[in-house]
Amino acid sequence: MYASPALTESYARNWFEDQAMTTMAQDVLKGLTADQKYIPSKYFYDARGSKLFEVICGLPEYYPTRTELRLLSTHASDIVRGLRQGDLVELGAGANWKIRTLLDALGPRRRAEVGYIPVDVCGPALLESAAQLTTVYPEVRVKGMVADFTCDLHRLQSDRPKVVLFFGSTIGNLDESEALAFLQDVTAMLKPGDRFILGLDMVKPVELLEAAYNDSQDVTAEFNKNILLVINRGLRATFNPAGFDHVAFFNEQQERVEMHLRARRDMCVEVEDLNISVTLKKGETVLTEICRKFRRDGAEKMIRDAGLEVSRWYSDRKGWFSLLEAGLDRPRPRESAKIIAIP
């Protein structure tokens, strides 16, 4: 069942060749012909975009990563409790900072029994991360899978016990219907006894939220504009990143941060592989990401609607970020969910 990162490389390359470009073409055509033009945020993550995001995670304004890491460090042993001869499946894996906390909590003996399956859309970044991980933890069996977690979870079916991890509040990048569909796919891949760990960025003061997406070093702006380079390369488009401003703000009505690229002048962009010309007026925006923020009652309803039940809720003292644990719905009182906060 397991393969080294090197053995995964040819599979990753074939997946990109056979599927990714077709999917990109469909996604971008739909997005650039919508009334509010958009590009799906998953196209941030080529190798350069993944590196830029790693830098963002270490910026002083970007609280989610350090807060989530503190939660994981505090509760890692509880999160991996009872896992033997099973798998840690990380969706949208990216860099391997967070999984190391859980692997450390397992200890050498259990690490040798447990497999790690990182899932990500960026093959090169996934392979690099997996190779680094096997250097630090040679006893861990790693099978990297290049896949889109919004539509490929059926490929992760397994009879082995598993803990499925979805960190970083990445679910906030999905709108309500997309999030429900994703969670229903997660439900379908779980078996009794399996667990799902979900990271959630919580609603907080607007100034903190907006600062996290408008850092003083403009790394987030560079990350935002990188999506245009990905589309240029993938679909032979003529976007000029210098012709756009990075815009990020908190939409209070929808309780989400929105990232846009705003045209600095009138322009016409050719997308050769789609055989279209895209006209943008000065001041018009292309939506590149939504980052929904959550309240506990809404998050628990979202989980229940997907057929899952929350069993644990981990939060920092300020309530800035949360990790919830859920499993297949079982007939027991909803108030039995264990609430755990960092003191």
Describe this structure in words.
There is one protein chain. The chain has 343 residues and is an alpha/beta fold. The chain has a domain at 5-13 and 69-205 and 295-341: Vaccinia Virus protein VP39 (Rossmann fold, 3-Layer(aba) Sandwich). The chain has nine helices and 14 strands. The strands form three sheets. Strands 1, 2, 3, 4, 5, 6, 12, 13 and 14 form a nine-stranded mixed beta sheet that branches. β1, α4 (97-111) and β2 form a beta-alpha-beta unit. α2 packs antiparallel against α8 (219-235) and α3 runs parallel beside α4 (97-111).
Q: What do we call the CATH topology of the domain at 5-13 and 69-205 and 295-341?
A: Rossmann fold
Under the CATH scheme, the architecture of the domain at 5-13 and 69-205 and 295-341 is: 3-Layer(aba) Sandwich
Please tell me how large the radius of gyration is: 20 Å
What is the CATH domain class of the domain at 5-13 and 69-205 and 295-341? Alpha Beta
- Care to count the β-strands? 14
The major beta sheet can be summarized as:
9 strands, mixed
Overall pLDDT confidence: 89
Count of separate DSSP helical elements: 9
Helix-strand pattern: HHHEHEHEEEHEHHEEEEEHEEE
Terminus-to-terminus distance = 41 Å
> What is the CATH homologous superfamily assignment of the domain at 5-13 and 69-205 and 295-341?
Vaccinia Virus protein VP39
- What is the percent of helical residues? 25-40%
Classify the beta-strand content into a percent band: 15-25%
Which class of secondary structure composition applies to the elements?
Answer: alpha/beta
